[in-house]
Amino acid sequence: MLHTDRIWSVSVVESAEELARMLTEMTWSCCNAFCVKGHSEYVWLNDATSPDGAQEYAVIKLHGSNDQPLQIESITFSWCNFEEALGYITRTLQEKDDSNSFSYKVHPALQTPDQHERCSHCA
Ligand SMILES: [Zn+2]
Q: How close is the Cα of 83 to the center of ligand 1, in Å?
């Protein structure tokens, strides 16, 4: 389930290792999203129900079937250690999640950190 009332601020992270560390070691605002440098096709959106809730992320492929954004995976990173998180992220970046049968169309509202400024989730 993807929160439809959110606008996410997408930050570019240097590497899959960096993203795995960030998602397993820190709790992020509900409007934080990330992509890995050089792989802007894939975006991880914070889909947690609250800042105190499990850190669940929706994995989005921006140009899926018919060029529409697809949610291809959902991962609760607060239940993962670093190695597990890196494994999931690497799998996505290697396009191995592209053909997941449970993927479905989504319409996430995405901004750059500059565009985002503040919303009720990060104020
Ligand atoms: Zn915000």
A: 29
Distance 96 CA to ligand 1 centre (A): 30
Q: What is the CA radius of gyration of the chain?
A: 13
Q: Which residue range forms the structural domain that includes residue 106? A: 7-114
Is 121 within the bounds of a domain? no
- Candidates 48, 22, 25; CA nearest to 35 is 22
Q: Is residue 90 assigned to a domain?
A: yes
Tens of pLDDT, residues 87-110? 999 999 999 999 899 999 999 999
Q: For the chain, what is the domain count?
A: 1
For residue 120, being part of any structural domain is answered with no
Residue 123 maps to a domain: no
Is the pTM value of this prediction over 0.85?
yes
Cα 4 to ligand 1 centroid, rounded to whole Å: 14
CA of 5 to the centre of ligand 1 (A): 12
DSSP state of 42: E
Please tell me the distance from the alpha carbon of residue 31 to that of residue 106, in angstroms, as a whole number. 16
What is the 49 CA–ligand 1 centroid distance (Å)? 14
CA of 61 to the centre of ligand 1 (A): 21
